[in-house]
Design brief:
binds adenosine monophosphate, nine-stranded mixed beta sheet, two-stranded antiparallel sheet, Rossmann fold, 13 strands, alpha/beta, 249 residues
Length: 249
C-alpha cells in the first residue's frame, strides 16, 4: 500500500505571533518555521506502517514556497521514501491545497492519504475533508488509532465525550489527532541520509490546478488581554466574593 502524507511548513508552535498594527494580518516575518505538529504525527504513522510491512512506500508532499524543501527533508529524515514539492509563491488556501493533493493523488495513486487534523497557522481543519470529497473517498478525521486490515483500515476517532471506531474501505483519507502517536526524534545521521532521497518539483500549473484564493481576510485582532487574578486571604472571603460576583452576573 502506498501512503501519501501532506506536510505543511508553519511558524514554529513556540513562536508567539503578533497582529500587525493595521489589523490586516499577523506579522510572521523571519519567525522560525517547522513542520505542522499534526503532520509530524501523520509522517510518524506512515513510517510505522512501512516498518510494519503494511506500507510499500511513503511519499510526502508539501505545497508552498521553495523553503518547504526543509520540511520535506525533515519528513524524509523521519523515514519517508521520497518527496514532492508543489512549488508556488501564491497564497494557498485549504481548497487550493486540497485540489493540488487531488491532482497528485491521480498521479501517485496512493491507497491511503494522511493529513493533519489542522494546520496550526490557519487552524482551518478543512484540507483533508475537502480532499476526501474531491476524490470521493471515505474519510476519518481526528484519528487516534489506526489498525490496517485487508483492503480496509479501522480507525478510532476522538469525538466529543468519547471515541468512535470506523472501518474505511481503501483508498481513504485520514486526518491525525494528537493521541495517534508520539513522533520520533530525527537524528543527525538520518538528516544527512535524507539529503540523498529524491525530491520532485512540480507547479500548480503543471498539475492543471487553479489556486486562486476564494476568501479574503477582512480583519485580524488579538484575543482580549486577560484581567489579572486576585488573591484572597481565606475560603470565607472567597465564598463572599463568589456570591457577590454571581449576583452581578
Ligand atoms: P488546514 O485545513 O489548513 O487546517 O490543514 C490541514 C492539513 O492539511 C495539514 O495538517 C496538512 O496535512 C495539510 N495541508 C494544509 N496545507 C498544506 C500545504 N500547504 N502543504 C501540504 N499540506 C498541507
Amino acid at each position: 500500500m502506498k501512503v501519501l502524507v501532506a506536510v505543511k511548513r508553519v511558524v514554529d508552535h513556540n513562536v508567539k505571533v503578533r497582529v500587525l498594527a493595521d489589523g490586516s494580518d499577523v506579522d510572521i516575518g523571519s519567525a522560525k518555521r517547522a513542520m505542522n505538529p499534526f503532520d509530524e504525527i501523520a509522517v510518524e504513522e506512515a513510517v510505522r506502517l512501512k516498518e510494519a510491512g503494511v506500507a510499500s512506500e511513503v511519499v510526502v508532499v508539501s505545497c508552498g514556497a521553495a523553503a518547504c524543501q526543509d520540511t520535506l527533508r525533515s519528513a524524509l529524515a523521519m523515514g519517508a521514501d521520497r518527496a514532492v514539492l508543489v512549488e508556488t509563491a501564491a497564497e494557498l488556501q485549504p481548497l487550493a491545497v486540497a485540489r493540488l493533493l487531488h491532482a497528485l493523488c491521480e498521479r501517485e495513486q496512493p491507497q491511503l492519504v494522511i493529513c493533519g487534523k489542522q494546520a496550526i497557522d490557519d487552524d482551518a481543519g478543512q484540507t483533508g475533508q475537502m480532499l476526501a470529497a474531491l476524490l470521493d473517498w471515505p474519510q476519518a478525521t481526528n484519528a487516534s488509532k489506526l489498525l490496517p486490515g485487508d483492503g480496509h483500515v479501522e480507525v478510532t476517532r476522538e469525538i466529543d465525550g468519547g471515541s468512535e471506531v470506523l472501518a474505511l474501505t481503501l483508498p481513504a483519507v485520514l486526518t491525525t489527532d494528537l493521541r495517534l502517536n508520539e513522533p520520533r526524534f530525527v537524528s543527525l545521521p538520518n538528516l544527512m541520509k535524507a539529503k540523498k532521497k529524491p525530491v520532485d518539483n512540480v507547479t500548480p500549473e503543471a498539475l492543471g490546478v487553479d489556486v486562486a484564493p476564494r476568501l479574503r481576510t477582512l480583519r485580524m485582532a488579538p484575543p482580549p488581554a486577560r484581567t489579572p487574578g486576585v488573591r484572597v486571604a481565606s475560603v470565607a472571603q472567597l465564598m463572599e466574593r463568589l456570591r457577590a460576583e454571581a449576583q452581578v452576573i
